Amino acid sequence: MNLLKQVLELGIGAGIEVKLDRAGLRTGLRAHFSDLEPNNGPIVTVRPSGLRRHLVLLKFGDFSTPCIRQMQAANYEQQATARGLLKQIARSHDLRINPGYGLDDWVVSGGDFNIEVTVRNVDEHDSANAVADTAKTIMVPLMAAMAELIGYDEWTDKVPDIEGEVTETLIRKRERSRRNRYLCLSIHGNKCAACGFSPLEAFGESGNIIEVHHLEPVSLLEMPRQYDPVSDLIPLCPNCHRLIHTRKPVPFSPDELKELLVDARS
Predict the structure, then answer these.
(1) pLDDT tens for residues 4-31?
(2) Distance between alpha carbon 206 and the CA centroid of its chain, in Å?
(3) Hey, is 79 helix, strand or coil?
(4) Does domain 2-150 fall into CATH 3.30.1460?
(5) Residues of the chain with CATH 3.30.1460
(6) Mind listing the pLDDT tens digit for each residue in 166-194?
(7) Other CB atoms within 10 A of residue 201 CB
(8) How many angstroms separate the Cα of 45 from the Cα of each of 129, 202, 217, 246?
(9) pTM of the full predicted structure?
(10) d(CA 180, CA 215)
(11) Any alpha helices (H) in the chain, and if so which ranges?
């Protein structure tokens, strides 16, 4: 349970509470944001359903009106990122947004708003490991979408090299958002767009060191703008990412980087 909590928090960028859910005929998992009581915000459950299926349900508690109002005030960037996260789920799984919304126009309209995801062909679907795997793959983008609309600043625990002191540091870096990183890698994959190297295949999850490159550098923006993970972000391995930024202030383009790599090999 603690490991799943860590995985969710790492992917979502907000504090999460995870508990067993024995409310139905089959035991599942329930997650909510740790600074909200379950009745005051979104709740996500995952449980076995039928034969070889998991059902993931996001709904709101009975006293979620203040949270919902805050989500309804989300700006264009937050809405676009949240919708993009749900689209990535819908690429591989059956996703339904109630009452009657499409992937491009949904909003958290009120307490009756909910999202259902059906995961099919799950081996040993009643096992705790299978339920935990679905929680990792579906809960992360689902709750990340809600976190984006609520407006959670992404956080991380950092251990500074000062007398061994441990502090929790809040960071506000929307342009470096791990939620946009998740979207970029979901769309483009974990393979370097320049040299083709895949750290995930080479080293496994522990060595998944792929980086996300902004085709228009954040440092050159005159005004903040929404980055489209489809056309504005690409995955690069650390070597290529460092190489592409050796030209300043405007980095090499991906095509120029590929030419550099070809010349270096010839």
Answers:
(1) 888 888 788 889 999 998 877 788 899 9
(2) 18
(3) helix
(4) yes
(5) 2-150
(6) 333 333 334 446 787 888 888 888 899 99
(7) 11
(8) 15, 34, 39, 46
(9) 0.74
(10) 14
(11) 2-12, 65-72, 76-90, 128-134, 140-150, 178-188, 199-203, 238-244, 254-265
